[in-house]
Please model this.
Amino acid sequence: MQKKINVLRLIFYSFILFVSALSFWFFRTAFYLICVLLLVIFLILDEVNLRRLVAKTVFSVDNGVDSILIGENTDCYLQIYNPDYSLSLKAQLTLSIQNSFYGDRGEMKLTLPIRMKGKERYKIPLSLTRCGLVTVSISAVKIQDPLGLYERTILYKDVEISNHMECSFTVLPKPENQSIMKEIIKNSTLGYSENEETNVKGNDFSEVSGLREYIPGDRIKDIHWKISAKKGIKMVKERINLSDEQLICVLDFSREAEKTELILQMTYSLIKVLPNGLGAKFIWWDDNSMEFESINYDDDTGVEQIFYHMFKSRVSDQQENIKSLVGVFYKNIPSYLFLTVAATGPKVESVYNTY
Model:
């Protein structure tokens, strides 16, 4: 706790006290004696008032939602509860707004009165332009005494604060380009319209990466009958196997916010168009732990849970060798989808894990 004295006010009140005391000594009247006594009493009460205000007042912040979509406005509520008869005409609260996913931090300063024996609730509108796990907390409170003689500052940013002094919520991406992602999934799972393979027992989850001529021993159901009819020879769909009926996706996050926002959009769109029964495993690099993090998605997993787990990480600098790192950390994965952003826009690559 820090205490700052207003030197000009101190000089002003000292001058008044000196003049009142000098006048009493010179005139010997009760009026100037009362002035001196009242001024001393006010100064003592002012100090007691501020001490009690600092000790008794409770500050809290909350948010009524667990998650919002990017671009939506939300409200944060600041509450000041003073159970005592002390008061302050000027209190400055510093709110810290942090996005742990990008490592961004900003501050908002509010100047408000603290009323005696009361509870005040203030609505603070927030407009957020990036996805992530956003935490709003009270980092500092500066309270001024009623006479404006001095102020006390309570710093919370360097110590552990209680739960009621911070709130967190996730800012989710908006699912865009669902039709494109649906086409990718269509070619990556059971849904091959040529053969109506969806309901055939024993089909594998795999991605069609190209076509080649039929080789004895190839599965009949992998033959692309339409192309084969056009070419006059049997053509087979070349597939990349996916592990254990899961779509393996590596997310190429970076501190380039525009790029990462597009990848998050692709991820949300992919989740939205996944057919029932097909799970997905999302993998990304976390700068906090300096290793890959992952989470599995299935029909029982909520979208908010997926992104909350992602946003607890911190995006890294551009990982130019991200594919080789996947090969080192996930040698058991034969292939995966690589969600990235190229010069032309969002891109989904089919990658063989050959490292």
